[in-house]
């Protein structure tokens, strides 16, 4: 689907605005609860869910529906941009302005983003090869829901502790 350039720009701006507001409201909800204002926290959470829904609407209009493999590769590309260009440039600029602590934080976060790229690319490779839930040598599989650990060449079809599906297991 081709979207006119100004409309596309507005969709991108709408997505980024809604996603940013979702984050702020979620953060403010936590702060309100910590300060003893649980009703205020619930209000922020409620509106944050609406903002999340709005962000999803704009994102889908911009990007369509991606399958899981496509989403993993898109995420890897985004992480690559963050660590190799965005944070690298910002660290350099902060350094030039004498902001050593912020430059260090940008470099440290860049290293984390590089590890995210690696994880996404590895998972995309596992999906493509059909090895997401199978491997030649036994490994530890951990249930993301309850923490149950299973050793083997594949995780159980269903977690024996919490009964969640195999899709909740990841290699440790």
From TrEMBL:
Entry protein name: Rubrerythrin family protein
Span of domain Ferritin-like diiron: 1-131
Taxonomy, superkingdom: Bacteria
The keyword Iron is assigned to this record: yes
Database matches in PANTHER family: RUBRERYTHRIN-RELATED
Cofactor(s) of this protein: Fe(3+)
The entry's keywords: Electron transport, Iron, Metal-binding, Transport
